[in-house]
Amino acid sequence: MRTKDENMRVLVAEDEEVLAELVATGLRRAGFAVDTVYSGDAALAYLGLHDYDVVVLDRDLPRVHGDEVARRLVADASRTRILMLTASASMEDRVQGLDLGADDYLGKPFEFPELVSRVRALRRRSARPVPPVLERHGLRLDTVRRTAHRDGQELDLSPKEFAVLQILLEADGATVSAEELLERAWDANADPFTGAVRVAMSKLRGKLGEPALIRTVQGVGYAL
């Protein structure tokens, strides 16, 4: 279970597989860790296994209806926020979806920038707000504009590197384990034995330059 604010993890539950993958790809490009499922029972299984900030939930899911997924999240007092998608944009449908416990509602077809903006807004409501700018040791991360600087020089970071650095900054000097980084910045397909965190950390250290800012705490994790 995550205890600090962090880079966002999103579940996309949409039975139109092409649309689900398009949404997931766009959200990953925006810097989020994203998993996709195509049925309501799979959505419930993933929601039971992982700690998501937001679920993008299609109402008309097979096997277990999206409405039932929303009901169970509400019944479990889950902190996961629900952005409900529907092919119907009628007022009655919107009201019904919100009454079921959805935090926001978006009709299809939708403009992708609006989806990203709504997901970000829901994430801010899911936990303690993250300061829009994080600063420490000459590092400056703008979490809204997704820009990073060290001593005034812009850093060319990948979305994954940005996520890792944001998590370390939010830890405020505390040590973050590799397992925690993997849980918070990677999706469920990440193999914990591939050394993905170690590789990303090596690239991030190279881009941050000297003097070194990230230290390895042997057997524990990483800290600024």
TrEMBL record:
Looking at the record, the residues that make up the OmpR/PhoB-type domain are: 131-224
The domain of life for this entry's organism is: Bacteria
DNA-binding region positions on the chain = 131-224
Task: Give the 4-aspartylphosphate positions (modified residues).
Answer: 58
**Does the UniProt entry include the keyword Nucleotide-binding?**
no
Q: Which residues form the Response regulatory domain?
A: 9-123
Cite the SUPFAM superfamilies for this sequence.
CheY-like
The cross-references to CDD domains, in alphabetical order and at most eight, read:
trans_reg_C (cd00383)
Q: Which UniProt keywords apply?
A: DNA-binding, Phosphoprotein
What's the name of the protein? Transcriptional regulatory protein CutR
Gene name, per UniProt, is cutR_1
